[in-house]
Design a protein that fits this description.
By secondary structure, the chain is mostly helical. The protein contains 16 helices and no strands. InterPro entries: ELMO_dom, ELMO_domain-containing.
């Protein structure tokens, strides 16, 4: 009975708030002469803050035409904007900037949805050693990471040198399919210096520098133990596939909207996703060193802590995880 009453109160509160919100919107429109979409576009600067408000407004509208506008094909966006302007009785000649702003927001919203579909397709496609393109990408990964060490054979223990588990990497891609390979190759090819450094550090791990404050807090016994402890490395390629999974979850959950809506002025692309992966790999590497795990069995704990940190960062509507990439900079300047 108590549970039923709680549910009843929650349902009543929901409908009360919903009706109250719509009444408030009606009053504000009458006072300002602007609909909610106009107020968002005129009062919120471009980026995640504006696009996410527009997305919420369209999805929460009582009009089916507005609700479905976030799911249109990219080629139908201009027609959709015209429909919105007509439905809201907004004169495009008097409000020319509104159409431009709405179009930019819809390109981001629709583009994000399409990016999820593209990433999901790659994730579901298994690595096929009989496919020449798949094999070519795998060999490119080796050449980028180990340019001075020729691969002696396709099936070789050498693959362990870049962090695969056995002598044939194809079995390690099962969890993330081709998406894991795409990301690793992108990192190795376009951020080569950092990728090679991360690989070297993962094979020959070093302790982070201990600050004077931390040193003063260590007992003599703890300091003696720390001196003889061995820094823990990790398997570069396996961790890359794991970080691909982390990036995938951030994307599918919608957490990456904040980042992509801030760095991509139009539709976010696979390149944006791969740049984000590069950032996450580099940041996780630094995070791993700072966490100073006792052994590799602590990987899941460190990964989960890192994931939560990234989630907290993405709650900031101003957040752009990796604006330093050249591709992102050229997009921002468009």
């Amino acid at each position: 009975m108590k549970h039923f009453l709680r549910m009843f109160v929650q349902v009543c509160l929901y409908f009360y708030c919903k009706c109250l919100w719509r009444c408030l919107k009606f009053v504000v429109r009458k006072l300002t002469g602007q609909c909610e979409l106009q107020r968002i576009c005129y009062n919120t600067k471009p980026g995640a803050a504006r696009t996410m408000k527009i997305e919420a407004s369209l999805k929460g509208s009582k009009s089916k035409r507005l609700q479905t506008s976030v799911n249109v094909h990219p080629d139908a966006i201009e027609k959709t904007i015209d429909d919105i302007m007509e439905l809201k009785r907004i004169n495009p000649d008097v409000n020319p900037q509104l159409g431009v702003s709405l179009q930019a927001c819809l390109l981001q919203i629709v583009g994000y949805r399409n990016l999820i579909a593209e990433v999901e397709k790659l994730r579901r496609e298994p690595y096929d050693s009989e496919n020449p393109q798949h094999e070519e990408m795998l060999l490119k990964l080796w050449k980028c990471l180990k340019p001075n060490s020729p691969l002696k054979a396709r099936i070789s223990k050498q693959w362990c040198e870049i962090g695969f588990q056995g002598d044939d990497p194809k079995t390690d891609f099962r969890g993330m399919g081709l998406l894991g390979l795409y990301n690793l190759v992108y990192f190795a090819e376009w951020d080569t210096e950092i990728a090679q450094q991360v690989l070297t550090d993962s094979l020959h791990p070093k302790y982070r520098e201990v600050t004077k404050k931390e040193l003063s807090q260590l007992s003599k016994a703890e300091w003696e133990k720390k001196k003889f402890d061995k820094a823990i490395g990790y398997s570069f390629a396996i961790v890359g596939i794991n970080i691909t999974d982390l990036a995938y979850n951030l994307l599918v959950s919608g957490a990456l909207k904040t980042h992509f809506y801030n760095v991509a002025p139009e539709a976010p692309t696979l390149t944006h996703f791969q740049q984000t992966f590069c950032y996450l790999m580099h940041e996780f590497h630094k995070f791993w060193i700072d966490e100073d795990p006792l052994d590799i069995m602590e990987f899941n704990r460190v990964r989960e802590k890192f994931y939560k940190r990234i989630l907290r960062q993405l709650q900031n509507p101003e957040m752009a995880l990796c604006p330093h990439f050249a591709a992102s900079e050229s997009l921002i300047n468009m």
